[in-house]
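S.,

Sequence below, as promised.
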Amino acid sequence: MVGTLETDVLIVGSGPAGSTAAAFLSTYGIRNIQITKYGWLSSTPRAHITNQRTMEILRDLGVEEKAKQFASRQNFMANNVFCHSLSGEEFGRVLSWGNHPLRKADYELASPTEICDLPQTYLEPILLEVAGARGSTIRFNTEFLDLEEDENGVTATVKDRTTGEDYAIRCKYLIGADGGRSRVAERIGLPMEGQMGLSGSMNILFDADLTQYVQHRPSVLYWILQPGAEIGGIGAGVIRMVRPWTEWLAIWGYDLAEGELKITPEKAEAIVRQLIGDDEVPVKIRSTSTWTVNNQYATRYSTKRVFCAGDAVHRHPPLNGLGSNTSIQDSYNLAWKLSYVLKGKATDALLETYCAERQPVGKQIVRRANESIKDYPPIFEAIGIGSSSDPETVLRNMEARKAPTPEGKKRRRLLHEAIRRKNYEFNAHGVELNQRYQSSAIVPDGTPEPEYTRDQELYYHATTWPGARLPHVWLEKNGHRISSLDLCGKGRFVVLTGIGGEGWREAASAVSDKFDIDIDVVSIGPAGCDAVDIYGDWYLQSEIAEDGCILVRPDMHIAWRARTYDAATGQTLAGVFEDILGKHISA
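The prediction came back faster than expected:
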């Protein structure tokens, strides 16, 4: 019989959110137990687009290079292809995820990392290995049943699915990262807005060598526009590359009103061949599954001691590739805060900032993903699909688009415009990087929020305004090129300053002693500084004077900044930390 186990943090779930939380908590030296009701990790490649912000987090964790070993690199993601079938007529392409020459510089200037395609089946083991190697206790076949929260902690009841025995785990805090049907979120009564189960989709994982159809137009996603593709699903059929160019995932919609869908191997193969448009190519069906399109987000992420993250609080279709990225970023935000509170370096007030900072992000990405579905009907209309279910009529309509007639000319223009609109799905760099937090863990500097000079969803706007992510610039340190982001993270606060900012070292030392926290001070400037601004980009982008400072949090978001140094601003640093940590200590 298992007695009551005890730990600091119990994590329910082993997906991207849960394993990221476990990995960072163990990295920070926090005891944690991670449980999952399953016998192993994800058996299907579900999430895959891994954006630059997530790669920065993996870089901070020390596994960026390992992730790149298992990922398809950015150039393999170059196109999003719209076609009648993989072997049939192509209607157009979008150069995607920073591969267009006009966008490539935007992506390269924004981050030291590259966006890549890393299927969940490869990502989860990387995260779990870090968690286990650094101290997490990981329990498979362990199902969360219930919890009781009190003033001092949480008691969770779990079931060992191997023996059938129930037992308790006592923890100080609990993280519910148990997916879109989160029992933890339900148990603590998180309020939700939106709807679940808007439409039905099926996934068909299959093997086939499709090199002849795709190698000349490399892509992660081939969008199949045929009669019936607009029924249910995510707006169109999809053939998704899992491994180039032999492992694939087909996505096809179905009508939920018809009830539970039974997918036989024969039916799955017929759908796959319909999407490929080739009855001769060898196909091996590996697995099938169904899922629903959701449009729902939590308006609150936590109680006092129970926090939810990932799909538990933002539930949406996979368009824009935001799901696992946002989940990982949720946990990155939460983990350092739990660490500081559990080590007695901050009060519970710091934990309240998790919801304040991440809930607006969750709401935004749910809306963005569902908006992307609405961009498909204009493409169908311009092509001539959807006006009839008769194949011959559809083919005539498709041919009419290419006719030298006023109607054909109009439809060609509408098709180009509709496909170009998909940049808001495949090049939404601003959605990925423009988060500007507002909470008590961000201390305003008295300046107004900078305006977005280009489209806020399409373009990243670098700024050191408090709340924003620290901008990336290349620097040199000890003869090596490093990113400004590499100066930060690792669970600590960092003060960035320059020539004339020596007073910040004394101020930071005083704060460090007062609050018993680690604060690094790094000077950036010419030779002789800790990091050399070899290209002058920090000077141009820091938005402070050389003797000013930028205070960067452990998650690389800017907590506060001061344009210049004087005795008064130096003393202000202590007050800034009092606000962030929720600790007001008499001198």
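The two ends are 52 Å apart (CA to CA).

Coffee later?
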